[in-house]
Amino acid sequence: MENHPAVQMLETELGSDFLKADIRTPKRIIVSIKPGAILRSAEYLHKVAGFRFIIASALHTRNGFEIHYHFSRDQEGLILNLHVVLDAVEPRIESLSNMFSASNWIEREIHELFGIDFLNHPNQEKLISEGNWAEDVFPYRKKFKSATES
Amino acid sequence: MGRKVLIPIGPYHPLQEEPELFKLYCDGEIVRDVKWETGYNHRGIEKLSESKTYEQVFFLVERICGICSTSHPFAFANAVEEIAGIEPTNRAKYIRSIIGELERIHSHLLWLGLAGHFLGYNTVFMWAWKYREPILDLFEMITGNRNSYAMFRVGGVRRDIEESKISAIEKVLDEFRRKNDLLTGAVMDDPVIHARTKGVGVLTRQDIIDYCAVGPTARASGVATDVRKDDPYAAYPLVDWQVVTAEEGDVFAKTKVRLLEMNESVSIIRQCLKGLLKEKEGDIMVKVNEIPEGIGQGRAEAPRGEVFHFVVSDGSNSPARHKIRAPSYVNIATFKKSCIGQTISDATITLAAVDPCYCCTERLAVAYDFSTGEKIMNAKSLMDISVAKTAEIMKIQGKKHE
Amino acid sequence: MGFKSHCFKKSLWVFHFGGASCNNCDIEILDCLAPRHDLERFGILLVGSIRHADVLLVNGSINKRDRERLLELYNQAPKPILVVAIGACGCTGGIFAEGITFAGPVDKIIPVDAYVPGCPPKPEAIIAGIVKLVNKN
Predict the structure, then answer these.
(1) pLDDT of residue B381
(2) Residue of B43, B68, B360, B381 to mutate when probing chain C, most C C-beta within 10 A
(3) What pLDDT score does B372 carry?
(4) Residues 322-361 of B with CB under 8 A from A
(5) By the CB < 8 Å criterion, does B45 face chain C?
(6) Each residue's pLDDT tens digit, B135-153
(7) Which CATH number describes the domain made up of C15-43+50-120?
(8) How many Cα atoms occupy the beta-carbon half-sphere of A110 within 13 Å?
């Protein structure tokens, strides 16, 4: 399948931080990048390529913590995911909230549910957990039977 | 600058049906800053969903929000069907679109009524809600319930719309169309509504792009985003309709967009009913054997904007991860732009103008854990939380002694 | 005539508390006041403060954060007060009963006088519940 121009641009822009592009259908693309390149990639997509930020989804898997940043280009009905894998013990990544405020809430939410730290977040306060569950409890984290053993 | 006065709206304020706390920081009459607190409506859908199968999840996502109770199953069905590579039959597609558009009509009428109520214009409230009743009767006739229709499933719909019902639906639509023209005329020409809504809570095109807002909120500012056109699903590519936009971006424009959208919805439903008459033989369900491993992303245009579902399947009977984004989640953030600089009296209608839906916003992700092969027990996780809370209290008390 | 029936013999004023609900019950409660059902003709009025209310309507599952607020509201209410749990979530917790933030159905937190089950209950069911409530006292 042909490469989408945005994917090619990302590839040239990021260089070695670009890991791989998974073009599932013409309307669904997943681009894996190194966590350090998230600011540059998101800035390119949002400011230059005209993508709209939908939401970010975090997952806890055996690889560690994964985040899919979903971007949409409405003119084509395209959803492009920026996919990063974070450290399993101390997950942290740059916050996007200084670029667009749409990511403000979701980063706080992920922080509460998974305990992922968003660096330079303008206001990483509690969003939903206040009174509902205690601090340092991350209800979405999974308990793996020790990834190394299995 | 004078001293700022804090005016809280909520969490249980007669103005809003749902619990949410807005803090307006005011300088005299003028709102200088707005902050919000959430968590009053967080139901932790994720933990209880751990034991839900794909079929059961439909009943759960339907109860994320009662008003847009078809949009969430719609998007979830789109996501799961993307994983499984299923294409529903045309008949199922038409039925899905009919339910989706009927819901849009009832939701927009509901919003219009509440907006009138927020303005202190209860006549609009009473009329809009009166016209809403026949639509709910239609729902009761088609699905058996006034809200929460339980119509969707992977690969199709649960119930058919029989031919005998079609003329009855058309009759109600004709009547509604006539009433909506009346209502549109009355609202659009009313000098009081003009005075209260024109130039209030303006969001420019750039604001919409910056805040990534969706739905009628975006369309009222000239951004023609509509998932039904952009990323077509169900029967929307099969029928002829227009995306309604306005340029002004104020509350009046948002009202106008919603009023005109209802007419589009009526036209879509009529075409779908014709389609149903043509597709007499079609099944309403495709047989689904199993959901393979994979990632699915489904979208649907709810009355308030784009609903987005992200489903990760590990090949088992339940999703391994399921993330939901409701439109209000991004639309509420625009308050920061639209409220500041307004007077307090305009703040309420500005807050209402995006049709915020707190139960959607706070539903939060629905997560499932089957990847490890062991279920995290509810009682145990509750126990863990309890233990952690005790630890926290001890920590606080420890501080007091210092 | 007892004290309680003396208190409730005239028009009932209602305060509505929506917990962590899906909104359906909230809308159906409002619908009772809309033209088709028009509960206001019986003097039933939705009021903005619990201190003016004779009836406390509670719907939705109650999460831990709501629980404190519900208790506070109940304590502020003028006694005697009638409490009505509306909808499957108000009565039992419904589909959300096993959620991590669930703090118990309404009757585990405050005493409840009437239950109106349904998901959501139709306005007719809510009216029937209120009629039973009025006749009970």
Answers:
(1) 36
(2) B43
(3) 30
(4) 323, 325, 329-330, 333, 336
(5) yes
(6) 999 999 999 989 888 899 9
(7) 3.40.50.12280
(8) 28
A133 in reach of chain C (CB within 8 A)? yes
Query: B376 and A100: CB-CB below 8 Å?
Result: no
Cross-chain Cβ contact A55/B323 below 8 Å:
yes
For residue B235, the domain's CATH number is 1.10.645.10
Question: In this structure, is residue B15 part of a structural domain?
Answer: no
Mean predicted confidence (pLDDT) in C38-63: 88
More confident residue, B133 or B68: B133
**Domain assignment of residue A33, yes or no:** yes
- Is C74 part of the contact surface with chain B (CB cutoff 8 Å)? no
Residue A134 lies in a domain: no
Question: What are the DSSP E strand ranges found in chain C?
Answer: 13-18, 45-46, 55-59, 82-86, 114-116
CA–CA min distance B188, chain A (Å): 30
Residue A144 lies in a domain: no
- Contact: A102, B372; criterion CB under 8 Å: no
Using one digit for the tens of pLDDT, what is the confidence trace for B72-113? 999 999 999 999 999 999 999 999 999 999 999 999 999 898
Range of the domain at A16: 5-87+95-101
Contacts of C36 in chain B (CB under 8 A): 130, 133
> What is the DSSP secondary structure assignment for residue C97, as one 8-state letter?
T
With contacts defined as CB-CB under 8 Å, which chain A residues touch C64?
Answer: 131-133
Work out the mean pLDDT of chain A and round it to a whole number. Answer: 85
Please give the pLDDT value at position B195: 85
Residues 6+ apart with CB under 8 A from A84: A32, A33, A34, A35, A38, A66, A67, A69, A93
Asked if A22 has any chain C CB less than 8 Å from its own CB, the reply is no
Section C10-16 average pLDDT? 88
Interface contact A130, partner C, CB < 8 A: yes
Supply the CATH number for residue A13's domain. Answer: 3.30.460.80
Q: Is the dihedral of CA B227, B229, B231, B237 positive or negative?
A: positive
Nearest to B211 among A68, A101, A145 (CB): A101
In this structure, is residue B328 part of a structural domain?
yes
Work out how many domains chain A is built from and give that number: 1
Measure CB to CB from residue A59 to each of B312, B330, B381 and give the nearest one.
B312
Residue B384 forms part of a structural domain: no
- B156-204 pLDDT, tens digit each: 999 999 888 999 999 999 999 999 999 999 888 888 888 888 888 899 9
> Is residue A59 one of the residues assigned to a domain?
yes
* Chain C interface includes B48 (CB < 8 A): yes
- Cβ atoms < 10 Å from Cβ of B401: 5
Residue with tokens 């807050």: B351
Do C101 and A130 count as a contact with CB atoms less than 8 A apart?
no
User: Measured between CB atoms, does B110 come within 8 Å of chain C?
Assistant: yes
Whole-prediction pTM: 0.87
Task: Between B340 and B92, name the one with better pLDDT.
Answer: B92
- Average pLDDT of span B8-32: 68
Instruction: Examine the pLDDT at B382 and tell me if it is beyond 50.
Output: no
Tell me, yes or no, if C69 comes closer than 8 A to chain A by beta carbon: no
- Which range marks the domain in which residue B120 is found? 42-367
Interface contact flag, A142 B369, Cβ < 8 Å? yes
- Minimal CA separation from C135 to chain B, in Å: 28
Mean pLDDT computed over every residue of chain B: 81
The tally of domains found in chain B comes to: 1
What are A73-124's pLDDT values in tens digits? 988 889 999 999 999 888 999 999 888 888 888 898 888 888 899 998 887 7
- List the helix and strand counts (H, then E) for chain C: 6, 5
Query: Distance between CA B222 and CA B78 in Å, rounded?
Result: 27
pLDDT at B236 over 60: yes
Neighbour-count burial of B390, counting CB atoms closer than 10 A to its CB (0-12 exposed, 13-18 middle, 19+ buried): exposed
Domain positions in chain C: 15-43+50-120
Strand arrangement of the beta sheet that strand B319-325 belongs to: B293-302, B305-314, B319-325, B366-367
For C5, the token pair is 């029936």
Core vs surface per residue B96-124: b (16+ CB within 10 A) or e: bbbbbbbbbbbbbbbbbbbbbbbbebeeb
